[in-house]
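Standup notes
- HV: blocked on the assembly model, inputs below
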Amino acid sequence: MSKLVQIFSSRRTWAWPYVLFMALFVVLPLILVGVYALTDINGHFTLHNFAKFFTHSEAIQTFVYSLVIAVLNTLICLLLGYPAAYIMATADFRTPKVMAMLFILPMWINFLLRTVATVELFNMCGLPLGEGALLFGLCYDYLPFMIYPIYNTLQKMDTSLVEAAQDLGANRWQCFWKVIVPLSLPGVYSGIVMVFMPTVSTFAIAELLTHNNIKLFGSLIQDYITTTDLLNYGAVLSLVLLIIIGVTSFFGDHDAKDDQKGGLV
Amino acid sequence: MRRWLILALCALFVIPASAQSQLHYDVQVATTGSVALVDTFPASFQAEKINISRTLCALDDLNALDFVVTDRSSAELTAWGDSVYSYADSEGTTWTIWRNRQESKNRSQRVLVQNGRNAFMSYVQQATAKPSHAVAWMGWILAGLLLIAGIVYGVVTVHQRRRERDLPSVQRETLRRKRVSRRRHIGSQAYLWLLLTVLYAPIALIAVFSFTESKILGNWTGFSFDLYVNLFSGRADAGLNSALIYTVVIALVAAVCSTLLGTLAAIGIYNMRARQRKIVSLLNSVPMINPDIITGISLFLLFVALGFSQGLATVCIAHVVFCTPYVVLSVLPRLSRMNPNTYEAALDLGATPSQALRMVMLPELWPGMLSGFILALTLSVDDFGVTFFTKGSGGLETLSTFIYSDARKGGLTPELRPLFTIILIVMLAILIYINIRNNKQEEK
């Protein structure tokens, strides 16, 4: 009994329930994705599912298309978001915080509602739904995720470096490209990760914005995983997505997602 | 030169503004004898003007229809689309017009007019060029304002230049610099506001149309609080009510569990040795890096493998999984800020571990716990992907999944609009509160 008390008064052990919980509900499920991918419906080991993926033209095409859409969306978000973040971080506003907040607020509203609202806006203006609507909606949904991390790094940037560059004779462009951009790269990386990864894996947005005419990889996974017979094949597709995510987060900032919402509170 | 450029820009705005047209329908009802034309459908759709042809139509043809008018109960026709407009004619019969969204690409479509057991055929033609008045007016007003602004700007610049011509060159140079920096300021401000306008346009659309009782968005039928009254008196869709209750229950359970678990874990992690701490922190970041769909699918596979029946319990577990890491991250900074010896001091002075926890640790940690709790609440309410895969097929819906299935059917339950507006306002209040609190803390 006294030993038990001793164990629990050592605060190190307080994390044990959490570690156990995570092992059961985070690590084990991820391993299970791999297990399901490597077995057939009866639980026997097989590589057939992987072979199917490489010969399944619909899956490959959707995969490539999703990557292209995700890259395009990330690029648009970067092109639109960087100037906004830069202006907010450098211009002298009376209320810079309120401005930043206005950009972040849509991030806190359910993205499905925002997507439905976009669809309604397109309907109301008589614009057709399709690829254009998809890109607009994706950009609309993920732009705040690009602006916020860039804004954060730019705001914390040491302004004396910029002043030093100016004193040493750099003009506005040189100052921007050689000092400010390199200093803001960490923010840009985490912005790219935060936009790219959800775009690749999105499944509801594409469906709503295109009347289910355009399928992204996420929707494909959803289709297979919810069909009991094809569950193992769905696991292969998820594994492919998992690999993409692993690669992106390896290249990107490791703490990218910390910025997401945690940074605000 | 620049003045002409501005004028040209104004013209560019004027042309699309006047050409901007809204979806507009002419309803042409084919009859055996006469053809009645009802313009600006559906806003001024008048029952008296229709002579319904007595041609019977097989219900199988319904899939090809854009609009269906019926006085039947809605349950029979929901498969084809949502009711968009209903009205009562002079004899007191209620008619409903149905819109089939799948076929909306087609510009001219038939309408099925249904009354009782008989189905009647007629036609709907979509007019292309009649601009909606509101949109056109807004366009013209915007264009006019831009034009006036352009002219004023041009006149002012010309006037300034004329005055400056006599000044010495040094003074002229400083004035030019000032002008350039001001122009830059105005340009960057304009860019931000333009971006914000686009970002908020869909949100504003929903918020504005929450104050009218019309079933479809974009059809203003007068100011009213009916949707708010419906929402709070429980007269809204039954599915929406249960989804709301489930959302709140799940969010509260998940937030409470993850706050308790996360706080304990944070204390544990803080007291670990460096290597252990690194491993646990890595584990902690996995659910945050994983996108929703992966978390959802992996948990779905776990529950399938373990043979759990999916429902409320599995959704709660899943929400605790992705909320707890955020709680841990918001409690950890508080721990590193407090004096690590106070807890030991309390023990040395004779406090039991639970007393020391309650009286020494908790007062220091609660701000972190509170922000973790709020974060967990919002994350849980906001979640769609994870819930979608772990809710099972027992009919459990949260707000997100309800919106999803609602939108897939082709419309938005009108009561969602006031709900959305309320959520918007609450979020705004929370954000403002947090920012004020942070500012105060920074001042300290």
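- HV (later): unblocked. The radius of gyration of chain B is 31 Å. Residues 169-208 of chain B form the longest helix (40 residues).
- Next: hand off to the docking folks.
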